[in-house]
Amino acid sequence: MAEKLKNTKLKKNIFALIILLGVCFLVFKLLPDFFSIGAYSPIEPIAIHSNGKGFTGSEACAECHLDIYNTHIETAHFKSSAKANLKTVKGSFKDHENIFNLNDSIGFKMEVRNDVLYQDAFLKSNNAHISSSRFDIVIGSGTKGQSYLKWQDSSLYQLQVTYFTPSNSWVNSPGYPSDQVATDRPIFGRCLECHMTYAKSTERFYKRNSYEKSQMVYGIDCERCHGPSNDHVNFHRKNPLDTVAMHVVKHGDLTRQQNLDACALCHSGVRARRSKSPFSFIAGDSLNQFSTPDYTEKDLKNLDVHGNQYGLLSASKCFKKSDVLNCTTCHNPHENQRDDHIAFNKKCQSCHDSGIGSHRICSATEESKKNSDNNCIQCHMPLTFSKGMKIETSQGTLKAVEVRTHLIGIYVDSLSQ
Ligand code: HEC
Ligand code: HEC
Ligand code: HEC
Ligand code: HEC
Ligand code: HEC
Ligand code: HEC
Ligand code: HEC
To answer: What Gene3D superfamilies does the record point to (predicted)?
Structure first.
């Protein structure tokens, strides 16, 4: 009897123990998940690259890279494309300032109707309306100018009237006729590739000018240079103690040529014979596998200053005689440094003031240097008129845009400037 009682008691204890262990197991297994629900939920991508990786947009980066985010949104890169509205379009919609005279008989009027911006063509003789186009997308931060695109269903076209910053006025888009209202020009992938983070064609090889509206990532944002980073964001939100960056392009690990290519993608002119579609290049890739330069070694010194900083720089002695010089030697890609000549001059001096080895000291006379505040750039990277970028400011008058040459050298005229 006593034996049997002892047995049932033991059985009950074992049973209780098993239940207890079971409950403990469940608590340990489920509790962390339960508590982490509030702390971690993945951020959904805003667009998907053709390689399958997701884009998140820079707002999500601010959570962990606030300083970089805050300066980056002030750059020409970030502002290089956007949805059109009164804040992003630089030209004026105010009475009198909103008129562009194409010629003696045709004018354009920029107007806001129900919060939508339009450019309307009209006959000057009787104000008769000719056509209307919506401003949907802005291309250009407005440093030198802006062009505008419109959607027609899923197709993109460039509008005839462009804004030119140096004259603070509306002008005819480069290459458009000035004797008639033109048919809007279709916008192909190459144009967007240099001014946006991502645009997805409705077709596999970007053959036409039609895109998926929900897959457009405006501006040259973080992920244009660091690759689509949705996995990076979600990994680090989930593993806040991990300090080694995952799933993102690290420029420090790239070779000099890879780093140059990441900028040359858009700063080495219109390259030829592309074997792959726009937007397929990701920083870290080798650019020559995607396209080839449309110039040879011989042409380097005659390249247009607009859009080919890479070609010109690579013809300069500073570049050829140094193993390290690349775009980020002088440019901080996260900051708007326009006109900050003091900062740029310091970069020149960091090599040249030492006079060590082949880093030679400026041999211009002290007097001429003093007269120009010893501004290295003014004499050795002078502003130069572009051969290709010309704007028609008034009918028949073409004005070339001035760009700073990246052919660093000795310019005979520099002393008289
Ligand atoms: C939840 C936090 C978090 C978010 C959000 C985040 N990052 Fe990071 N990131 C990190 C951590 C941690 C590192 C590693 C430490 C460091 O370098 O600061 C890092 C490093 C980097 C690096 C440097 C890699 C290297 O070593 O050179 C880049 C580039 C980067 N992140 C880009 C981005 C971009 C782009 C976004 C937004 C799309 C983003 N990060 C969003 C946490 C985050
Ligand atoms: C996706 C194409 C693209 C890539 C990649 C790119 N750029 Fe640019 N960059 C542009 C465009 C377009 C502009 C003109 C933006 C504007 O004013 O609308 C520009 C402007 C600039 C400017 C002038 C900024 C100003 O204040 O006016 C500098 C400097 C520059 N880029 C340097 C770089 C460097 C350095 C890299 C590589 C780390 C780089 N870019 C990568 C397209 C690109
Ligand atoms: C025009 C290309 C470009 C854009 C746009 C860009 N980066 Fe970078 N980023 C670079 C390059 C190049 C480096 C390496 C810098 C160097 O070598 O000095 C870098 C370095 C970094 C680093 C590591 C070193 C550091 O400075 O802390 C982080 C983190 C980073 N970027 C985050 C971002 C984030 C976040 C954004 C957007 C808010 C962004 N980047 C936008 C090109 C870019
Ligand atoms: C190969 C790359 C590339 C292509 C393709 C390209 N651009 Fe650009 N664009 C640039 C660069 C780089 C700059 C600024 C730097 C310079 O002037 O060298 C620029 C400047 C501009 C500017 C002046 C921006 C400003 O704020 O000053 C406008 C407007 C512009 N481009 C419109 C267009 C349009 C519209 C297309 C397509 C029909 C196009 N671009 C095609 C690279 C490109
Ligand atoms: C990474 C180091 C480095 C930086 C930064 C640098 N240079 Fe140089 N530079 C060199 C070297 C190396 C040479 C070649 C000297 C020689 O001929 O032996 C050179 C040559 C020159 C020459 C002579 C060119 C010729 O054709 O004879 C000038 C002028 C010059 N640099 C100006 C500048 C200016 C201006 C800046 C800043 C915008 C600058 N450099 C930035 C390394 C640099
Ligand atoms: C030796 C220093 C140096 C190097 C290296 C350098 N730049 Fe520059 N860059 C400058 C200076 C100085 C300016 C003029 C800035 C200003 O006036 O605001 C400039 C201006 C620019 C501009 C604006 C041009 C304009 O007039 O609108 C672009 C775009 C640019 N750089 C791109 C690049 C690219 C891409 C590379 C690499 C291939 C590069 N830079 C390498 C010094 C340099
Ligand atoms: C007033 C215009 C002017 C300014 C400002 C100026 N330079 Fe020069 N620099 C010249 C001229 C002109 C020469 C060629 C002198 C000669 O050969 O007699 C020269 C020559 C050079 C050389 C080549 C030296 C040699 O012996 O071959 C270097 C390197 C150089 N400058 C760098 C710089 C740097 C860096 C700065 C800014 C700290 C600067 N320069 C400021 C006009 C200028």
So the answer is: Flavocytochrome C3, Chain A (1.10.1130.10)
